[in-house]
Amino acid sequence: MVFYFKARPEAGDYTIFMGLDKYENEELIKYGFPEDIWFHVDKMSSAHVYVRMHKGQTIDDMNESLLEDCAQLVKANSIQGNKVNNIDVVYTPWSNLKKSASMDVGQVGFHNPKMVNVFTIGSFAYSFCFFSFWSFALFFHSGWVDASASLFKVSISGFHAFKVRTVRVEKRINEIVNRLNKTKVERKPDLKAEREAVNAAERAERKQILREKVKTP
């Protein structure tokens, strides 16, 4: 079972979704799209929340309204995180999620664990402090993180090189959570078939481009 939500209209036409449990999370990890952005409450157990960006968009194209919707939803779906204020939410492109054979069901790490603290939801005061991890072991199903970090400052231009970002959520905003829940739809999608259909369409598009190039004198 996968739950689908609609972001606020002013954020754009975006779908937010999450799995029912760790088994659905496993499928979402396996059959994700390049446009998917993954969210999780940092250092706590929580749902795995995704937003599917438009084709060609990246994590850098997320506006604050969309980011706030995703952060509030993942906070609301964390047993511990929903009860406390000032929690951090981590988010990263689906392509940065790392899955190995030794990991348990629903467990995930990062290919590139470099992290940046972005800003506090509801504030435009950006903090460009970055963390470079030389060791990284991440178990989101239990909320345990073991990492050693060195703190250093970089220019704003270096911001986009960091794949893992965090945003501070000061408190739960019921208005946002309730609005999202009103759009909630439950589905049992064939995630593998959806992914294969997209792959087939992309292959056909590439073949068509090649044929047109061959025809061009």
Automatic annotation (TrEMBL):
Domain of life from the UniProt record: Eukaryota
Protein name: Coiled-coil domain-containing protein 25 isoform X2
The keyword Cell membrane appears for this protein: no
Entry's family note: Belongs to the CCDC25 family.
Pfam families: NFACT-R_1 (PF05670)
Keyword vocabulary terms for this entry: Membrane, Transmembrane, Transmembrane helix
Transmembrane regions listed in the UniProt entry: 116-137
All copies of domain NFACT RNA-binding, residue ranges: 1-112
Presence of the UniProt keyword Kinase in the record: no
Disordered: region residues: 195-217
Native source organism of the sequence: Abrus precatorius
Leader peptide range in chain numbering: none
Gene this protein is translated from: LOC113865453
